[in-house]
């Protein structure tokens, strides 16, 4: 039986691993590139290196283009879906929105190097007014830089990687087995951390019905909208009487709120972790009655409650 020359499969493996990571599957794309790069040294074939680079680049762009077009089709609603399925805290969505508002599509040059950022920034670009050609240019440049770093690291440290693989074989473990175990442990850790966070925050939340009663009984209660500016542009409505806060400058604005009033925080993400984070900050600043709204603005609207258009001041 002839043995498989693993370097010959490098372009396909690079494409598959990077594409899977780009569409959001929990696949360690960068480690895959590093290992693939280490197999290219023995081949000593420049054409194979180029083919592997192009395969990885194609996987990155196809996955990113799918998310870009999804954002273009569904707008910022796609971020609600990411909030529901993401193992990362929902604040990664807010962070990506803030970064994109400041840097624009140029963020794609470096977003792959920040875990979780690329997956969120790309549908944001699609939901905005970014042209597909402009997206393509910056996405390909960023992906090319990222792929080059991964493959180069593998080729540079191939001896160390080969030593690790040889040690694994001595214990009867293949790279695929170790990768699968590591992936399962990583997913379990992130899921457990997210579950514990949501469980802790669930105790302090307020429901839509409870908020309606609060507004009826305490007209002075403060309702605070902490959605990103991009989310507000996509959905320019708020719970009546809401104050708009930007988390980037929230510390100064939060300091102006009366400490003894009831404060309800809401965002647009179904798991309302962003709102809960602000609620925690307020509690540390001395506010005694702060609660995030369960389900955010979407739950309020789905319950048939009134909303009002945002009034922009100049």
UniProtKB/TrEMBL annotation:
Domain Rhodanese: 217-309
Keywords: Cell membrane, Membrane, Transmembrane, Transmembrane helix
Spans through the membrane: 12-35, 47-69, 107-125, 137-158, 170-192
Pfam family, one: Rhodanese
Subcellular localization(s) per the UniProt record: Cell membrane
Source superkingdom: Bacteria
Membrane topology category: Multi-pass membrane protein
The protein's name in its UniProt record: Membrane protein DedA with SNARE-associated domain/rhodanese-related sulfurtransferase
Provenance organism: Luteibacter jiangsuensis
């Amino acid at each position: 039986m002839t043995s498989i020359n693993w370097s010959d499969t490098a372009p396909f493996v690079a494409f598959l691993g990077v594409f899977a990571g780009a569409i959001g599957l929990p696949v360690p794309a960068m480690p895959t590139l590093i290992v693939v790069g280490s197999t290219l040294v023995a081949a000593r074939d420049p054409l194979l290196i180029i083919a592997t680079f192009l395969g990885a680049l194609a996987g990155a762009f196809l996955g990113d283009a799918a998310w870009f077009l999804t954002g273009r089709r569904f707008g910022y609603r796609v971020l609600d879906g990411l909030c529901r399925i993401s193992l990362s805290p929902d604040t990664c969505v807010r962070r990506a929105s803030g970064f994109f508002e400041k840097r624009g599509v140029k963020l794609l040059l470096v977003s792959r190097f920040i875990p979780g950022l690329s997956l969120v920034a790309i549908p944001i670009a699609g939901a905005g007014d970014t042209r597909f050609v402009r997206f393509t240019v910056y996405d390909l440049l960023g992906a090319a830089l990222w792929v080059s770093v991964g493959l180069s690291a593998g080729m540079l440290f191939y001896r160390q990687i080969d030593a690790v693989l040889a040690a694994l074989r001595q214990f009867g473990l293949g790279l695929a087995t170790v990768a699968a175990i590591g992936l399962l442990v990583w997913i379990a850790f992130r899921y457990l951390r997210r579950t514990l966070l949501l469980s802790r925050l669930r105790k302090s939340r307020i429901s839509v019905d409870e908020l309606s009663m609060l507004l009826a009984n305490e007209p002075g209660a403060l309702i605070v909208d902490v959605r990103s500016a991009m989310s507000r542009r996509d959905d320019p409505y708020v719970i009546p009487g809401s104050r708009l806060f930007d988390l980037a400058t929230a510390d100064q604005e939060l300091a102006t709120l009366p400490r003894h009033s009831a404060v309800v925080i809401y965002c647009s993400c179904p798991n309302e972790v962003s709102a809960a984070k602000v609620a925690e900050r307020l509690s540390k600043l001395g506010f005694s009655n702060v609660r995030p709204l369960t389900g955010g603005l979407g739950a309020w609207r789905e319950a048939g409650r009134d909303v009002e258009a945002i009034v922009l001041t100049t």
